[in-house]
Amino acid sequence: MTQPSPAMVRAAQAAGARMADRNTSFIFNEWYVGAFADEVGRSLLRRTLLGRDVIFYRTQEGRAVALDNRCIHRSFPLSEGLLDGDTVVCGYHGFRYAPDGELIQVPSQERCPKGLGVRNYPVIERGPLLWIWLGDEAADPALLPPHDWLVDPDWVCSKGYFHLQGNYVSLHENLLDLTHLSYLHAKSFGTPDYAAAKFDAEIGEGRFALLRDVVPTTLPPVWAKPTGMEGYPQAARIVRSEFLAPSLHTVAVRFYDNALPEAGRPEFRIRTAHIPTPETHGTTHYFIVHGRDFAQDQDWVTQHMHDGLFTAFQEDVDGMQHLERMLEKTDEDFYEISVASDRASIEMRRYLKSRADAEAQARVPAEEKPVAPPVSLAGVA
Asked: Given a cut of 90, is residue 283 above it in pLDDT?
């Protein structure tokens, strides 16, 4: 069996070292989805995001709140306490926190210390999503990834969630690598002609897209039935799969009858927001919202597409989990070979690593500052 030459292996390892992987630091200065909006209510929702333990709840007026899930007294999880009005009461010693995280009551003493509390995280609620900012830089709403169609009444949407036992970098690469549709999704919405269809890549600062025109083709049932093109061999499937931020990837597809003249032919558009939020370096909260701009009043179409798509997304999840188990076993001899269709995903992974390394480096000076020894009061009158 032919093995890559040592020089080729070294080159592959050098290329891999420049790309993000499951061990790369998190990028905190971004908006991430912490929950679907309807998950957060008048109870304490605990969630680990980018390795941080967070609780969500709503005030009596309905405003979403996100706080660190650790009492500053003895580190008891606040999620094991209770929500009393708009405040959180620790279930260990009763320390009470306001929605801004300020400590406002210590039951064991009359006066509450000032200037103490837990971290409050900025949140933005838009449509079905609740976004959270976990970074050290000031949260800027203008940096929210673009997703206007999710709040557009002309788009009918359904949503779902997977607790992915895999890392978010691999998931992003999966979404920029559409060749896999012919194989990983052979039983769902992949077609044999997909992998060989011509493709193009767009590379920009922080935005990476793969474009694929599968024309002519026969649509899989998930699309064929709602568009009325079942078994029709002259359909067009025009795909744009785009990385928009570490927290958002959107796939936009157009379908039409390729035998009809361009002027006046009906087009059917769908979009899927793939929304990964790292939980740990080996697990990911995988939120998904799928929408369409046709047959808006036909509930069966919503259910048909949802069922078919989430069958395919389960295949992705299963695939990513197989991949994760292999990546857990890598050693110093590990390498991977890339091909031309990987261009967009390679550039995306380089971008993620560059961002992550820059943030990690920015935190180093503060972490490396010498800590003054504690002042002893022994012998002080």
From this structure: yes
